[in-house]
Amino acid sequence: MKLSIVVIGLSVTSSWGNGHATTYRALIEALARRGHRVTFLERDVPWYREHRDLTKPVAWTIELYHSLRDIPLRFGRLIRDADLVVIGSYVPDGIAIAEWTTTHARGITAFYDIDTPVTLSKLEQGLDYLSAAMIPRFDLYLSFAGGPVPGMIEESYGSPLARVLYCSADANIYTPQRAKPKWALGYLGTYSADRQPVLDELLLAPARSLPSGQFVVAGAQYPEHVTWPTNVARIEHITPKQHATFYAEQRFTLNATRADMKALGYSPSVRLFEAAACGTPIISDRWPGIETIFEPSREILLASGSREVVEILRDMPDEQRRTIAHNARRRVLAEHTSDHRARQLEAYYVETSARRRRKTTRLPAVRPMQVAEL
């Protein structure tokens, strides 16, 4: 089975302040290795244009567009003829693009929600990239959150088929590196106001309690009002090519979860899989469903407050630390690589196609949108 796939996403060309980029890259590279023809469509906007770290991948195609009208005018035939069209969360003018795509695409249409907890918490208030009315029009809803969440999307929002598609680690890039640890604990992630309290409690507070230790926070968009202890190094941006070495330079790395993701649960971040694949032991905040991803105490360390983090950093023997890291890496290689996700997506495509063939009733007719309306 070799598919023609179109992905319309936020940005794959820039990882600067954009956690979607490594998720898309890993999945698409795996799909391309498996023989699928993939084209990624991205709105050309100043922020990502100024911080691009990928322009011409070898095995798949990136197309930049400038306005909503480019979708039907430049890529209409590509979208209509594709076997699978995937529209991601946070795409500019995503609702209008989804309306046009679900009306004109002949193949399977899917919404890939890389931020499912955030989407569901704000859906009724109104989003630029998705409306509740659009969900039933997609053949498939790919959810960043697992557990009971896909079933809830089907029952509460009328999705014909919702399935979990977690992010992953590209095992060709995220591998253990030889490096002497510089930092007792580190964190990699863009600033988020609802995640900052976790970072304060589980990294900055331990740094103040262990003034002789060295800590690091890497990521963009942190505001000036954040007060950093003197033993916390700040790095504005690390490219994906540097991630593996960065993780190797940490004795432990921190996973800090956004409020909506903690509340919904079953929503692992891409950094969890990437750090584990690099063989760096992870300390994480607690949230429902984390035990379905990694086994606590054996594959991951959980902490509710700074005291627990300090005890881990100060007291855990190196042999135990390395064993936990080894177990987590083995779990990722067994279940959470980008190749696993590509095969899952193939299976979902087959399932959705079979469901469409069996379907005897059609959705209410929708008046085709004209190019001028876009």
Describe it.
Strand 1 (4-9), helix 1 (20-33) and strand 2 (37-43) form a beta-alpha-beta unit. The relative contact order is 0.13. The two termini are 34 Å apart. The chain has helices spanning 20-33, 46-49, 70-81, 94-104, 116-122, 149-157, 196-209, 240-248, 259-264, 270-277, 306-315, 318-335, 338-358, and strands at residues 4-9, 37-43, 61-65, 84-88, 108-113, 140-143, 162-164, 183-188, 215-218, 232-235, 250-255, 282-284, 301-302. The radius of gyration is 21 Å and the shape is globular. The strands form 2 sheets. Strands 3-2-1-4-5-6-7 form a 7-stranded parallel beta sheet, sandwiched between helices. Strands 10-9-8-11-12-13 form a 6-stranded parallel beta sheet, sandwiched between helices. It folds into 2 domains: 4-167 and 338-368, Glycogen Phosphorylase B (Rossmann fold); 183-335, Rossmann fold. The chain has 374 residues and is of the alpha/beta class.
